[in-house]
Design a protein that fits this description.
alpha/beta, 8-stranded mixed sheet, globular, 10 helices
Length: about 270
């Protein structure tokens, strides 16, 4: 059998990756100190059912949402605040939600909670909505435009584009990894939570974006979503961003003129 633990082991294949979490947290904290950010807005009763909003100058063009990754087991919205800069500089209000993590929550619950977070943020910001997520967050935003989306119709009607960055769209291989001791995925949930195995919303506009230097499994996951959803009434593009690995691929979200920011907010 293929070594699925190695297939998903990003940090093991990136030199200096052990220092990255501290760098992310420091950079995000400095950004919050320098910008207008509403923090700890509750969308539920659990401690992690909160989101932050980074506000632009003037009236927002609309709502952009970024959902963090961490294999559904780790990380927090506060690690990534600075990635809001590209969208904020282009006039968008940027919401960054946290969500309960495994093993306390199952992936099915996380999907519902991210839907609740987007809905609560949408009540605070008028206009179109664009959503993006990285890694596990890419899985969660792709679930927002699956046929059984947890978003209510009035929020779906405002949703212009979904950007899954290094997203996971077929969860079945995760059953054969050590991390499943924490995730507790069984076959039924792995299938029901795999966006690539579902029909997309017919009006969905989706981009699966992945770094060209990522682990081969992440390239497969992006291409899978494109192959499975093309021809099912959704608009789906796959972008391979050459020269980037799993973590560098999101850094250009902080640049308002980067291609990935244009994919995010137009």
């Amino acid at each position: 059998m293929r070594d699925w633990d190695d297939a998903y082991a990003n940090m093991a294949h990136i030199e200096g990756s052990a220092e990255l979490p501290a760098i992310w947290a420091k950079r995000a904290a400095a950004y919050r100190d320098a910008h207008t950010v509403d923090t700890d807005i509750a969308y539920g009763d659990a401690p992690r059912e909160k989101f932050d909003i980074v506000w632009p100058e003037g009236t927002p063009k609309g709502l952009a949402v970024f959902v963090h990754g961490g294999y559904w087991m780790r990380c927090d919205r506060s690690d990534w605040t600075d990635l809001a800069e590209g969208a904020r500089a282009k006039g968008w209000a940027v919401a960054l939600p946290s969500y309960p993590l495994a093993p306390e929550a199952r992936l099915t619950q996380m999907t519902a909670q991210v839907g609740a977070a987007i809905t609560a943020a949408a009540a605070r910001v008028k206009g179109p909505i664009r959503i993006a997520g990285h890694s596990a967050g890419g899985h969660l935003v792709s679930r927002m435009v699956s046929a059984d989306s947890p978003l209510p119709p009035e929020v779906r009607a405002r949703l212009e584009h979904t950007l899954s960055i290094s997203g996971l769209h077929d969860l079945r291989p995760l059953m054969w990894t050590e991390m499943n001791k924490v995730l507790h995925l069984d076959e039924a949930e792995a299938i029901s939570e795999s966006a690539g195995l579902k029909r997309p919303l017919s009006e969905a506009k989706v981009t699966a974006w992945v770094g060209g230097d990522e682990r081969p499994e992440f390239l497969r996951q992006a291409q899978l979503l494109g192959m499975m959803w093309q021809g099912l009434e959704a608009e789906v593009d796959v972008v391979v961003d050459s020269g980037h690995y799993h973590f560098s691929v999101i850094e250009a979200l902080a640049d308002p003129e980067s291609p990935i920011t244009r994919a995010f907010v137009g």
